[in-house]
Design goal:
- The complex is a heterodimer of chains A (about 425) and B (about 300).
- Chain A has about 425 residues and is of the alpha+beta class.
- Chain A contains 17 helices and 14 strands.
- Chain A has two domains: about 160 residues, Periplasmic binding protein-like II (D-Maltodextrin-Binding Protein, domain 2, 3-Layer(aba) Sandwich), CATH 3.40.190; about 200 residues, Periplasmic binding protein-like II (D-Maltodextrin-Binding Protein, domain 2), CATH 3.40.190.
- Chain A is globular, with a radius of gyration of 23 Å.
- Chain B has one domain: Orthogonal Bundle (MetI-like fold).
- Chain B contains 13 helices and two strands.
- In chain B, strand 1 and strand 2 form a beta hairpin.
- The longest helix of chain B is centred in the N-terminal third of the chain and has 32 residues.
- Classes of the chains: A alpha+beta (about 425), B mainly alpha (about 300).
């Protein structure tokens, strides 16, 4: 009896051991076509390497909260996506493993500079996450409507609109028949999502303001500085004048037939949504220069290996495969390359008539603050911006947000060694 | 059965109660006790490099001095004051209308109860479409009915109308529950009261005011207490539709607690908030019970 029990135990343990080697769980977020591209990728990976993939899908606007629940219940995946600015928080809390030694060095060398910057933890300078894609935000316009308004169309970052030109353009576009709202800033993406910080930090930077002082890691004095307040007031003025598409009016205002918008302040992924419908009428325009130069955002969902991964080698194999996979690049619409080898494969980004401006903007990208307190920073900024867009006083709201951010820093003793 | 202990309870009864009691203790009592303990610490949601420490009444002080918390209190008070007449009033009206056992009435009772069994999430999504600006259902219909005098309103985006919009939605979804309670209350009114009223020539509105309403005293007390407690815990609609905005006009106590725990990641502060909410509900219940313990109609419950 004992021998049989022992034998059964051995078999069970052996199978457990085997399955731990041959399986990885992947935590990710994706929408629509991107989700299908991921599913196909997982299937190809399993077919080529024999390692099974257990996908854990989380919607991206509750990603951080769901990830917290996963950590609390000890169900963290082996491989996970994370939104780039949250990297400092995850590394500071000890959830991620450095990639060197695990991921193929050739893949690491292939990363663009922006990608490397996103995945590096500044304290120890090690790479913790692989950014195979990147992103940017730019202005999309309808050539027809811009011509009807008599507005100049910039062709590169160097001759982007100035603040006055941009304001004048909005005024002119408001008078063009057929234009319901001159500008769509995608309020329909949601009241409090990462979009707010991502798309509008560049406006603050271009005015000369910033979200947080990156030496003292204090927000009071930076987020509520006169330049930041001016930036917020400028964004508020667009809404106050009735130029902005309201939140309940959807995200297709640029290319639909009724209630149109003339310009859209959108992410690079919007190109693949709008281009099939607008074709040659669609033009990519760099973000305006509000005084201190054109500033653009970067950062996207990057890949990391968690400290609790049962088989870091299998996880690293997945990342290698993801970086080298040619099919994924083609299937994922609107992807913006973070690997040098990918950029060469995407003609849209070298075509001046298409998205060349978008790729050019990568050289003036300002990353969101790499700070462990980023979750509270972004939540406070989103709340402030939401209130400002619905008419609250910019200085008051930004001061409230700055106080909340510094309070969180103090609660964590300044996130040593950042705030010391 | 051989009774155990003082002879009140037998083994069979204990065995029958045990599964429910175990679950109750595990999922209600234990977390509640833990929450009381955590309220005095600065426990973060996720374990991090800084050890948790005891902060005494620090969390409570921070919450009670926070503008956001008091705004949430105000919002919840306003919501309660608006939703009780709307929801309970409509529930009582439908209960009186549909009180009866014939087929037609039974059918409509079922139909009127449908909103209550629709998940709140679904209701929120559908109503958010109806609240669309500028051409959602509400804006269009009101525009047509007033011959264009009514200008479209951004219901969920305007700080003055957002809470009202959520109130209407909540009243519509949840009135079924109060309606059922009122129907039970109405059926408990002895018919000889109505016969006496008929003999005295009292009918219609006066019959409602002088016979029906006073006889519903106990039911009203129950409905008032239940609805207040539910209203104080408003969360789902806010979380889906407005996330506390615009400009904090729809922030509620539970939403504040949720933000403290899951967004700001401070479980200590969230636990302190939960404790405050619990004490608030208990004291409101106590005050209401005291104020209503003497039934003026002399009816025994």
């Amino acid at each position: 009896m004992k021998k049989v029990a022992l034998l059964i135990l051995c078999v069970v343990m052996a199978t457990m051991g085997v399955s731990a080697q041959g399986k990885i769980s992947v935590m990710f977020q994706a929408t629509g076509a991107e989700g299908d591209a991921f599913k196909a990728l997982f299937d190809r990976f399993t077919r080529d390497t024999g390692i099974k993939v257990e996908p854990m899908f989380i919607p991206h606007d509750v990603y951080f909260e769901k990830f917290s629940a996963a950590v609390a219940s000890k169900r963290v995946a082996d491989v996970m996506q994370l939104d780039a600015p949250f990297l400092a928080n995850f590394v500071w809390n000890g959830y991620l493993s450095p990639l060197s030694g695990l991921v193929d060095q050739k893949v690491i060398d292939d990363l663009t500079l922006s990608s490397v910057a996103q995945g590096t933890y500044p304290i120890d300078g090690r790479l913790y996450a692989l950014g195979n894609a990147d992103s940017t935000v730019l202005l999309y316009g309808s050539k027809k409507l811009l011509k009807a308004a008599g507005v100049r169309i910039p062709t590169s970052v160097k001759d982007a609109w100035t603040k006055d030109e941009f304001d004048a353009a909005l005024d002119k576009l408001a008078k063009v028949p057929g234009v319901k709202w001159p500008l769509d800033i995608f309020r329909a993406y949601g009241v409090k999502t990462e979009w707010a910080t991502y798309a509008f930090q560049p406006v603050f930077e271009s005015f000369g303001g910033k979200l947080i002082d990156q030496k003292s890691w204090k927000a009071v004095g930076a987020l509520d500085s006169p330049e930041s307040v001016a930036a917020a007031a400028e964004i508020q003025s667009w809404v106050k004048k009735g130029y902005v598409v309201p939140a309940s009016s959807g995200t297709n205002a640029l290319y639909r037939d009724q209630d149109k918008a003339a310009l859209a302040w959108g992410g690079n992924w919007y190109w693949s949504e709008a281009y099939p419908i607008m074709k040659d009428d669609l033009v990519a325009i760099p973000l305006p220069n509000f005084g201190k130069g054109v500033k653009t955002p970067n950062g996207t969902w990057i890949w990391a290996i968690t400290k609790s991964a049962r088989s870091p080698k299998a996880a690293a194999q997945f990342l290698d495969y993801l970086a080298k996979d040619k099919k994924f690049v083609q299937e994922d619409p609107g992807v913006f390359p973070g690997l040098k080898s990918w950029a060469a494969q995407l003609p849209a980004y070298t075509d001046a008539k298409q998205m060349k401006v978008a790729f050019e903007q990568a050289s003036v990208a300002v990353p969101r603050p790499i700070y462990p307190g980023y979750p509270v920073l972004t939540a406070s900024f989103q709340t402030a911006l939401d209130s400002i867009l619905s008419g609250a006083d910019p200085k008051q709201e930004l001061s409230k947000a700055a106080a909340a951010i510094d309070q969180d820093g103090a609660d964590h003793d300044g996130y040593p060694p950042f705030g010391n | 059965m051989k009774p155990i202990g003082r002879g009140f309870v037998s083994w069979v009864e204990v065995a029958m109660l045990a599964p429910a009691l175990v679950l109750l203790v595990m999922f209600l009592v234990v977390p509640f006790a833990m929450s009381i303990g955590l309220a005095f610490t600065n426990q973060p949601l996720l374990p991090g490099p800084i050890p948790t420490k005891f902060v005494g009444l620090g969390n409570f002080a921070r919450i009670l001095s926070s503008v956001e918390f008091w705004r949430a209190m105000l919002n919840v008070a306003l919501f309660t004051l608006m939703v009780i007449p709307l929801q309970c009033g409509f529930a009582l009206w439908s209960a009186i209308l549909l009180n009866g056992q014939n087929r037609a009435k039974r059918l409509f009772q079922g139909l009127f109860f449908l909103p209550y069994i629709t998940p709140m999430v679904v209701v929120c999504v559908v109503w958010s479409t109806m609240y669309q600006y500028p051409s959602g259902v509400f804006n269009s219909v009101l525009g047509v009915l007033t011959f264009g005098l009514f200008k479209p309103v951004e219901w969920l985006g305007n700080p003055h109308t957002a809470l009202v919009a959520i109130t209407m939605l909540s009243a519509w979804q949840a009135y079924g529950f109060q309606m059922v309670i009122y129907m039970a209350g109405l059926q408990n009114i002895p018919t000889d009261l109505y016969e006496a009223a008929a003999i005295d020539g009292v009918a219609g509105w006066r019959r409602f005011a002088w016979v029906t309403w006073p006889s519903l005293y106990q039911t009203n007390v129950f409905v008032l207490i239940i609805t207040t407690i539910q209203a104080l815990q408003l969360f789902t609609q806010v979380n889906i539709l407005t996330q506390g905005g615009p400009q904090d006009s729809t922030n509620t106590l539970v939403h504040y607690i949720y933000r403290s725990g899951f967004v700001i990641q401070n479980v200590g502060r969230a636990s302190a908030g939960s404790l405050i909410l619990f004490l608030l509900i208990v004291s409101i219940y106590g005050v209401m019970s005291f104020l209503t313990k003497n039934d003026p109609t002399g009816e025994k419950p």
